[in-house]
Design a protein that fits this description.
mainly alpha, 84% helix, globular
Amino acid sequence: MKSKLYQIVQYIILLVIGIFLSWLFFRGFNFNELIEKTQSGNFSWFYVVMLVSILVYVFRVLRWQMLIKAIGYETKFHNTFAALSISYFVSFIVPRLGEVTRCLSVKKQHDIPFMKLFGTVIIERVVDIVSLMIVLILTLILQFNQIMEFIKENVFQPFYEGIILKIIAGNETVLIIVLSVIVIGTFVFYHFRKYIRERSPKLLVQFIEGLKEGLVSIAKLKQKKLFIFYTFLIWACYYLMTYFWFFVFKETSVLTWGACLTILSIGTIGRSVPIQGGGMGAYHFLVTNVVILYGVGAGFGKTLATLIHAGQTFFTFAMGLIGLIIFFIAYWRKR
């Protein structure tokens, strides 16, 4: 009962945060201007982005199949592709549930033990995190001045001017908000501390077991270089999925490869925030501020961030629907 309550509270809190961030972003947003700018864009690039997005799914499926094969099981490409497509769709609505969903989908079709599949998913996540760290380090090295400026303008300066200075000046509203957040956070932690303490060891054991299975699967890989190559192709496609959007508008076509690298890094962090809708609100804020940092106006910065997120949302839902159709057809044939 407590477990369900905790999950419901967590879901509601994340949803409220996402809605609030989206409201802040779109507050005062001129949608007529967005429509006018959209009408002036060259959306033939949209189809190129969608094609590259499909390649990401293909490479991820091939890489996941390598891990599954390493633990002694075979899967059909279309079943694995369907499971991956469904998982992204589910994660878009309920963050982190997609990993469970895709393991269950493959288990249903191929009778592979769930925990063994979950182990391969965990190792995939570890590889993705390591890859993101490499991209972040590369971005920091190649775009150091821009990253420092971004952190200064969007982290330190807002915190100092928006909170510290106002509290020092005696702004009671800000002080009450800060104290309320601290009190509510403390209350939530205190209320759920027993659940967290009871669940943490079990989750840790499950994580270690899954990680062990995943590490064993990598150790058994016969084509480790191919696995690394697929990982490189996945991130190269992520880069191109952002870069091709620049050419939709003349104003954003001036953005450089460095700007794309920064957007990829910071935008991925925004999408990784466990907020419904693919990091809605958080992604829009981060990408817009990066675009502004590279000399493009705020209007086109917001437009570009909105279109990238909307395009990926459309693709995720479309692929999720295709995945469900493939899954049910395959399941019906199996029955």
